[in-house]
Amino acid sequence: MALEANYLRVRLQQPGPAGERQLLCTRRARLAYGGQQVMVGDWVGLDGCDWGDGRAAVASLEPRCSQLQRPALANVDQVLVVVALAQPSLDEELLSRFLLSAETTGVEVVPLLSKADLITEGEASCWLQRLNGWGYDALCISREQPETLSSVRQRLAGGVAVLCGPSGVGKSSLLNALVPHLDLPTAAVSGKLQRGRHTTRHVELHDLPDGGLLADSPGFNRPELPIDQQQLPSLFPEIRRQLEDGARCRFRDCRHLQEPGCGLDRSWERYGTYRSLMEQSS
Question: Is the pTM of this model over 0.85?
Answer without folding.
Answer: no
